[in-house]
Amino acid sequence: MAKWPILKNYTGYKEVSDIVNTIVEFITPIIEKRQRTFDSDAEPEDFVDKWLMEMKRLEGKDVKSAFNKDLGFGGLLVSMFEFCLGELTFHQAEKNINCHLLLSV
Hints:
The chain is an all-alpha fold and 105 residues long. It has helices at residues 8-11, 13-37, 47-58, 69-90, 99-102. The protein has a domain at 43-105. It is built from five helices and no strands. The longest helix is centred in the first third of the chain and has 25 residues, at 13-37. The protein is elongated.
């Protein structure tokens, strides 16, 4: 796309990129806050807690896993992005966006 930047105006690339960036900017601070306040001794309440619990369990271990280090955060971000994108697509006609409920905001 770099060689033909003018194509961005005709392909919808910019619009899609803006939507992706908006969702990621919305989700990232929520996940970061959940990660900071996560209590691994408490009973998990939702998908995010279970993901963070697995990340915590593998912390410091030399195990190849999608839950380790940056991959764990990135994987959680992608999963939440997909939940939100599915929510946006499913409720587009109703304009009812509830992906924040998945993140227990």
